[in-house]
Amino acid sequence: MRRDQGSQLRTLLREFRQVRFGMVGAALFVVFLLIVACEPFLLSYGEVNSRWRDMLYWADGPRYALPVWVNWFTGKDYAVSQVLEPEGLSESQVGTMRIVSMDFPYAFQAGRPPKDLVLKMTITGRVTYSLLVERPDGRSMTYQKSTTSTGAQELRISIDQNLRERVFQMMASADDPAVAATKNPKQIDAVPILFGEAKPGVLTNPEVVQGTYHLRLQVALASDEARVDKAELIVAGGVSGLLGTDGQKRDLWSGLIAGTKWALIIGLLTSLISVIVGVIYGVTSGYFGGWVDALMNRVFEVAVNIPLLPILIVLSAVFKPSIWLMIALMCLFFWTGPVKTVRSIALQIKENTYIEAAHGLGASHRRILFRHMLPQLVPYAFASMALAVPGAITYEASVSLIGLGDATVVTWGQILFDAFSSGAVLQGIWWWIVPPGLAIAFMGMTFAFMGFAMDTILNPRLKTR
Amino acid sequence: MEKERVLEVKDLELHYFTRKGVVKAVDKLSFFLRRGETLGVVGESGCGKTTMGTALLKMPTPPGRIVGGEIRVDGQDILKLSENEVRRRVRWENVAMVFQGAMNCLTPVYTIRKQMRETLLQHREMPKPEIERRMKQYLNLVGLPDDVLSRYPHELSGGMKQRVVIAMALFLEPKVVICDEPTTALDVVVQAQIINLLKDLKAELGLSFIFITHDLSIEAEVSDRILVMYAGRIAELGTNDQIYGPQGPAHPYTQRLLAATPRLHEEVAELAFIPGTPPDLVDPPTGCRFHPRCAVVMERCSRDDIMLREIEPDHLVACWRCFHD
Amino acid sequence: MTEPILTVENLTKWFPVKRSLRQVLRGERTWVRAVDGVSFSVNKGEIFGLVGESGCGKTTTGKLIMKLLEITDGKLTVKGRDATHVRGSALAEHRRDVQMIFQDPYSSMNPRFTIRDVLMEPLEIHKVGKSESERDAWVREILQEVKLSPPDEFLVRHPHMLSGGQRQRAATARTLMLNPSIIVADEPVSMIDLSTRAEILYMMKQLQREMGLTYIYVTHDLSTARYFVDRLAVMYLGRIIEMGRGGTVIDEALHPYTKALIGAVCEPVAGRVNQDKDVPIKGEIPAATNIPPGCRFHPRCLYAVRECWEEEEPTLVDVGGGHFVACRRYDEIRRLGPAARTSEASLGVRRKNASA
Fold this sequence. Notes:
heterotrimer, B: about 325 residues, alpha/beta, 4-stranded antiparallel sheet, C: about 350 residues
């Protein structure tokens, strides 16, 4: 029998290849598998899996940055997010102090200013540092600060009030003094003004000047142990990464890639288990009929009507929320999905003469169920699996909301859910919604196509057409 | 004097355009139907008899298309008429059809009155009392009482439903009624009743019938002339006496079909049968289409195309044996 | 060869009708009396025909013999063993002994199965054959037996790729897989083209001779029954009303119902087209929930007299030569012919009574 089943499988595969949309489905499935396999190479933020919810990890990126390819269609409009390494690193001795100087030349070519400039470094010991900003038109400003606090230091032009003031001082002379008088130097939107053209209106409605901006940093180290490390300039641009960033500055591309494996796991496992259980339940109920059917129907109705949420809350109090627990719970409620339809199909199938013929041959109930009836339900099972996959993915997302979500993983549903809860739809942050939505749709389509293909193959009568 | 011909078919061709190729389901069929006559059409399943029936109403089942020929109803070629004209003037008005299994197509949720009225109103505008009168008249004509009108299909037996369907076909006083296997799903007793009914209608109303069935024994009871179809063509066309009479049919196919039909009052050791299956009409055999199954096949049968020829008055045969001399 | 291989005594099958709430409250029950006391016995190697119109209980009788339905009452004996209520291994043995060919060759085989799967199934169920190759050889042999050759070509096909006749051959092959002694053939040729009908019946007859099979041939078609069967039982509303040698029952029918059935049969002979068929019967079959009192045929009988509905139902009586009839007036009818009729209604005057 083994050999026989092997050849059956081969026939099935050969026939599968002849169904075009089945191949499309299979191709999509392979793509998803490849994405999972190549995940380490595809991620632009390597720690996305463990630090998706870590605000600090994402702090430097731009908020709501568009995908970089938007520039291809808008003519280099948005500044690209990037991290600049220091150039011209040099150290000199001035008296007792060592002075480390470096330059961050930023070649700004975009039509709109970046969202922020963040200067980051790690400091040890007592240091004084000064930042000299030189614009392409020759205007410049300096900013100085002493500190003894060891650890990460960062200067954010958009937030730091002193820096704002300096930017104001540098640019105010270009604008109408009457306008300048109305402005509070500490409250200006510093970044666009920094990149603005020196002419009247720069304070209110700046127009960008393209060119190379130099940010020269000099760090005076007052003691021998004092050091400065890991200095870098982060340009938080209007576009970032393949898919942009979300409201929490997270890189959506990395999130999406990291979510693929969970989507597959959640979708496949939940739909597989629940469809298997549901189909067997439905077919048993339909086949036996009578009081078995009545009893199974009542059990089904109870299962359908149990409110899921309270149970989930109680369970989350008892167990530590994990993705596996969630899958188990979803199975517990998803299995009811195919039952009614399967039961009605089973009622039809069992009226066929060949079921009666099998009885006449002495076939057991088990044999009739598994040899004659279940194979006919495979296409339907695949179809309902395909339907259950997106359901399971989004359900997982909404379950995350009540604290049951597994905070240690990234899922498409969670991305989508975050998007909805921060009003991405109203704000038009399409790149936060469309990619995960499409990903879920494609995942569903993959299974739907494969399901339909199975249907054409397993329903030989359709082939005669 | 010969009776007038109500229906005349010339070189009718109907092809099904399928993925496998063109199925020539009806291939150059020519025959006519006289007023007050029943023409029986017999053949194995798949020989094109039902297809031919639907073609006469100019409503072939897709992917079938009438690709040539003439269908003259009262002298007018309906294939030249527009669909609209056919619907208004020919279909159901002049040529009606009782489809196979039509009695199971009565809508279970409406009364017979409603269903009959719908049919009538689609073709004629009539005041209500007139409709009612007419419905009763036709029900009585097929042997049903008036109260059938207010009943639902499930309350009627199979025979009664078949009578209702026949009444609906007669409603618009057509000249020709095509009956496709009107008795196959019925029990013998009911079948006999329906056969008697059709005979009476023919006698009383002067109707012409085309009676399609696979059963030669039924044709013997109802048809004045019998058209034997094989693989989309006419094998033999003759009167009841010529086919069933002592000399027997002329075409080997008809002969064997008749021999395969069991007789109730005759003790036979073995029934005859026709080995093999009807040919695939995508790629029919050359020459005579029956030659691969024929027991008296000659050399030229597979070579030369055979045309229908008259061997005696009213008796046409397409067989080389019959013209063999 | 007169040892009976199968005997049914007073075989009865009543189906309960779904009740309305009112009927449940009143404790009323209605039954469809599908088979209502049928007795006959079939000898080894015999072909026994069960003939009747739809709803007469002939198929139900076949299914009761097959044990596809629970027997309500009566006794079923196969090969001398009581098989009325067998279960477990005795039932499995019964299944091997008694097989069935179903009417509709289009739905009697799982469309997903290949012919090989179809034929293997009985062997798998009953764990016949030591090895796969032994089973395979057996499948091929049986396919040859039913003239589906070359077997290799048919083994891989699905039922929908076969013609009606080939399908019925495959269905026959399936019944033969377990070497049964009795085959219930339920209208095996009614859905097959006339031209191949005889071929199938011929094959079945050959198999019967070669393998010593016993057939129970269930049909509504008297003409094929005449050719096919040794003995014949005519059923009406769940009862046998006439039984005997096939030719005898048809040529010398005694029961008015049998006469009507025979009158209704069409025959391929000349000279019938200009005369109405005389079918001596009136009305339509009553529902099996409401079987008329007395002789169950009396409301439709043209020969019925008062005793027919006032007195007890007549039972089968032997009129000689193994010819049984259940009619009170059979002798008068035989002697007087149509003169014994008490009612003028006949189908010659069809219009007036079709709806009665």
